[in-house]
Amino acid sequence: MTEHSNAASVEVPLVVRTVAVEDPGALLALLPPGPDTAAWVRRGDGLVGWGVAAICRTTGADRFADAKRWWSQQVRSAVVRDEVDRPGTGVVCFGSFGFADEPGHSVLMVPEVVVGRRGSTTWVTTIGVGSIPSFPAVAAADAPEAPRGIAFSDGELTGTQWVCVVADAVRLINAGALEKVVLARDLVATAENDIDVRWPLRRLAETYPMCWTFHVDGLFGATPEMLVRRERGLVTSRVLAGTIRRTGDDARDLAQAATLARSSKDLEEHEYAVRSVADALDPHCSSMNVPESPFVLHLPNVMHLATDVAGVMHDTADPLGTSLDLAEALHPSAAVGGTPTDVATALIGEIEGMERGRYAGPVGWMDATGDGEWGLALRSAEIDGDRVRLFAGCGVVADSDPEAELAEAQAKFVPVRDSLGGLDPLPG
């Protein structure tokens, strides 16, 4: 394994081989135990990886530039034999980036083995350092052990304290300081045993198949929001902003969806988010399609206002147009930061009361061509032994009700909470 900080130069090239294989079954079931795994799966398709052939850890405001420089060096020096030639084949990295510039802890990692599926095509990529790696056996691993004795506790703020923070933000918005700010809170789950990340990953993928289930360097979750996908010159971004909790009754949920679609508060929040994405993508695209009105995305626990923005890049050979470049240009969007962005992110640092880490930052993968998929690390948590730190955030605008925002945050904890087996009422 090679490990570098701040994009140090490549000393030994990666040797990469991709071959087509028979379908080995569910991708997440292939992951072995241990922390050195990565995943990006939706509706059975995607990528999983294990082992570490190379890794770059970086921090601060230059984290994207450091990571891109390191990846460019890895790609230029790599010796690649790719017999499949699809997005996600050949040399591939998984990444996760800090939300804020400080401390901004971020990582790009290249697994030793990557298994991918797209439709009827399945492949295995092996990656070695300086030599051709042996071809691995690709088969389902032993089932993970369930977490035992999960207990939940408040994170940095109690629910009551967080409601007060939201109320302060509403006052600032109504005073004209900004238009929108996204505020998050955390929750801590502790088990009697070390938690095997494969347990919540499998449950998230099963319960939320329309989301992108991910794991990179201890950060895992199931995000409904695609920050950006780049595939051979086409760019897409799914924007979510505006949320209502599901009731479990189909008739009531249809009425709730109609209410959400007419809600001036939620439509205002959504418009800010769509505008920020369209403005960020516009310099990179020769044409764009931005729908005039959102649709309602139905998930098992909540419903969101959603808009799919699409574009065609100016030049697919543009070295500054990789999927990671686009993710950097989009981050932080109004969906996770606010409007105006600089004012909102500064306010988050002042009043939110916790360090987000990589929560709400870009998470995903990229191949040597620059194609890739980067989501927002939402409905997510950080795992460390027997402890998991869960995150949830809400968009706050002028007519937000702080108690309603707390209820929305509680609903957004549900996917990860339930994936751990926790069914007790949440604190706060």
How does this structure look, described?
The chain has eight helices and 24 strands. 25% of the residues lie in helices and 35% in strands. The chain has one domain: 4-Layer Sandwich (Anthranilate synthase). Residues 422-426 have low confidence and may be disordered. The chain is of the alpha+beta class. Helix 3 (198-207) crosses helix 8 (402-419). It is globular and about 60 Å long. The protein has helices at 63-77, 159-174, 198-207, 250-262, 264-281, 323-330, 341-351, 402-419; strands at 2-5, 14-20, 37-42, 45-50, 54-58, 79-82, 92-96, 106-110, 113-118, 121-129, 151-154, 180-190, 212-216, 219-223, 226-231, 234-245, 285-289, 295-298, 302-313, 338-339, 362-367, 372-376, 380-384, 387-396.
What secondary-structure arrangement, pairings included, does this model have?
Elements: E1 2-5, E2 14-20, E3 37-42, E4 45-50, E5 54-58, H1 63-77, E6 79-82, E7 92-96, E8 106-110, E9 113-118, E10 121-129, E11 151-154, H2 159-174, E12 180-190, H3 198-207, E13 212-216, E14 219-223, E15 226-231, E16 234-245, H4 250-262, H5 264-281, E17 285-289, E18 295-298, E19 302-313, H6 323-330, E20 338-339, H7 341-351, E21 362-367, E22 372-376, E23 380-384, E24 387-396, H8 402-419
Parallel strand pairs: 1-5, 2-6
Antiparallel strand pairs: 2-10, 3-4, 3-13, 4-9, 5-8, 7-8, 7-21, 9-10, 11-12, 12-20, 12-24, 13-14, 14-23, 15-16, 15-22, 16-19, 17-19, 18-19, 21-22, 23-24
Helix pairs in contact: 2-8, 3-8
